[in-house]
Amino acid sequence: MTLLAVNDITVSYGRLTALRGITLNIDEGEVLFVTGPNGAGKSTLLNAIAGVVPPGSGSITIDGAKVTGAAPEDIARRGFSLVPEGRNVFGDLTIEENLKVGTGMRTDRRKIADDLESVYEEFPMLAGRRHTPAGMLSGGQQQMLVIGRALMAAPRIMAIDEPSLGLAPKIIDQVYEILVRLRAQRKLTLLIVEQSSTRALMTGGRMVLVRGGRIVLEGAAADMVKDDRLKQAYFGFGDH
Amino acid sequence: MSQRPSVIRQTILTPIVLIAALLVMAALTYYFGSRAFNRTAVEMFINIMIVVGLYAFVGNSGLLSFGHISFMCLGAYMTAWLTIPPVMKSITLKGLPVWLLHTQLPMWIATPISGFFAALIALIIGRIIMRLSGIAASIATFGLLGVVNNIYSNWDSVTGGQGSIVGIPPTMNVWTGWIGAAVAIVIAYLYAISRSGLALRATRDEAVAASASGIDIVRERLIAFVVSAFIIGLAGALYAHFLSIVNPGSFYLRTTFVTLSMLVVGGMYSLTGAVVGVVAMSVLIELFRNLEKGVSFGSHTVALPNGVQEIAIGIITIVILMYLPTGLTRNLEFRWRGWPLQRRLQRPAQTALKELN
Amino acid sequence: MTAVLQIVFDALSLGSLYALGALGIALIFGVMRLVNFAHGDFIAFCVFAMLWPSTDAAAIVFAGQLPSYLLIPLLLLIGAALSVLSELIVFRRFRNTNPATMMIASFALGFVIRHLLLMLYSSRPKSVTLWPSLGLPVEFLGAHIPMLQVVTIIITLIVLATLVLFLKRTRYGLEMRAAAENFTMARMLGVRANGVILLAFAISGMLAAAIGLILATNSGTADIGMGANVMLIAFIATVIGGLGSIPGAVAAGFLIGAASVVFQATLPHDARVFRDAFVYGAVIVVLLVRPQGLFAPKSAKQRV
Predict the structure, then answer these.
(1) Which domain holds residue B183?
(2) CB hemisphere CA count around B140 (13 angstroms)
(3) Partner-chain residue, chosen from C109, C112, C239, that has the shortest CB–CB distance to B139
(4) B134-154 vs C226-240: helix axis angle to the nearest 10?
(5) What is the ipTM for the molecules in this complex?
(6) What confidence tens digit (pLDDT) does each residue in B290-313 have?
(7) Staple B228 to which of B56, B83, B345, C304, CB 3.0 to 4.6 Å?
(8) Which CA distances in Å does B136 have to B129, B149, B263, C233, C241?
(9) Is B19 part of any domain?
């Protein structure tokens, strides 16, 4: 069943239009990989779903409930957890505090301690430094931390914006291994935005290509990556 | 740059319209206004000078300054030192240097000197402060206000300390007020279209891009700071000649915030906004002042209790900012449909809107 | 030795006042980037709330008569209520406007409060007698320290400790610290923006009430402008401490208090009246050396 439905949304910043009518459906437990060149509107799409930028038109529903134009905190409370681009750890807060910020809205308070331990199991290098300010972590560690932090919010859908940005290839592999494992363990629905499409092979699932604020290509990730049309559409050759 | 003549052609309307509008107000006041109303008008013209001077720095650099009223203080005391009759000075201001004690200049010479004195101090202090950006720069200008106020309030032998210095020739009327306002507008306008002014506005809107294209932000800011100090120094001198007494308390927080409010209410990135803000607030103040005195309905006189004026003005300021966060003019200059320059002058509004999003 | 001890206590008690003020400004700045210039008027309002509105010269004590265990909570409540109301009525509408507009709005609000007080109470300072026994000196290692100084320092330490516990140990404190660092991110983790901001205003208002109580006890008068000076120094301390850093604001408050007292004690007699000029001059120097403040938050550097 459809967990997240984005229906024909547009977003403009002043006179600049970033999204020109995007429609997406994500089923429970699915992975959706959103790719596209710089400035295509990928991050705007995530920010619009998260309620950070209000869509000009169209609608967004999470599990059937309309969340268009709702405040970010209300959308988070519906189970949508965004890991934004650039990681955004709370640098002055310790690792453990970072992990706990998102637990304030949870109703199953008893499970929080268990979840905290399981996040530490998943990311052992965080466990050793619970009381270190997050600002002291390396880029890769911060990426792990924000994924862990999003998990602690017990989301139904986790969206990640450019998880590989600024990380070494080895670390990127690690991040994706964790994402794949988490998905298998927790039946998490994932929405991943990446500029490069190659990682989609690791996650499987569906893939959409966004360019110029529109979805220009859609299909199974495995087929798309092999398909020449992706390359063409990505670089805009298809238009000529 | 070769575009200079066209910049003037495209923007010259703004200062002309502003100065002409003020001339009409001055004339109406002179021929029809009561004595009290004339004083209100002079006060308004002096406030226009201050706020326009403030605009020259804040509007072009985008930095909020809390220190500009210290230049008013510098200008006012300088003109007091220069114009008070030596006999009086030798009693009240014994600490002045002998040559200054024996000097007495007419107002029209003393006023520009006061402006230059303020500008000189701005040049010295600005070399230090203008290296800062953002809120640190604002606080540093606050520090300047604190330093100047503290010195002028306590250096008894030279400034008369907390008390007032009396005996400044009271030579102001609406016409001198209008001339002062016009001079301020012309200087601020000329600065705004100068190479430095254009460069500084570029740094305000796109700091990174501007510095990448070789603009020396610190230098341009310093120029704006000095120009603004000059205008406000003149305003301080005229203010001294208006009241004929000076007192350090008049050049502190209250005046700082009232003038800043006028600028923000008008639209802090526009010259028109600076003038409109002062005129609008002055009209409001005068209106409530009269309401406090009482309005007659037949045989009944209804008067607002004292103090309502300030409360109402505070509330109106808040409401204006609530609905028009970029001020009454929305940071636009005086408009003339179809003028090519509109684009350029409208940009600040868009920047401000971008900030809103 | 006793002279040094006296200076230490002077510095600590003045610093306490500034630190409490800076805290009230920093908390609100942290969550909504508002420099609240009305804070000084909140302080005055809390003091005048102890008196019955009248323009007579003699003060009519009203809440001031209550026993301390009622008076103190009542004033804290009044401070919190005034602060929360100002957020609900005024500042809420200024979310996301540029800082200059917000600053001017807060100044205008302070202006309204100040003139409301003037209208109700007139501009004459009024005498308020709270706990006269606190004026007596206590002997401490040979120095005579006014009891009030000791109490001020102890109260400040208690307030600070409570606040640290609240910020570090409770869920709301955690949310507030997270929001102060990155408001949008905190919201995306489910932190309620309105809740955090209201809480910050409530705490800030209570701090204003605490300062009001200390000032009134100290001077024995209620004066419309009494909060303004503390507010100014507090504002400067917030910047020197590194905007957004709560511990920085407190430390800078103590630092400015100490600097004032030390200048007062060490400057030559003729230069003493210019103490504030030296303090402001020192502030400018500190900013030149560290424009981001002495204790800038770690995240602030990363964002550049």
Answers:
(1) 4-249+337-356
(2) 25
(3) C239
(4) 140
(5) 0.90
(6) 888 877 777 777 777 777 888 888
(7) B56
(8) 9, 20, 21, 14, 11
(9) yes
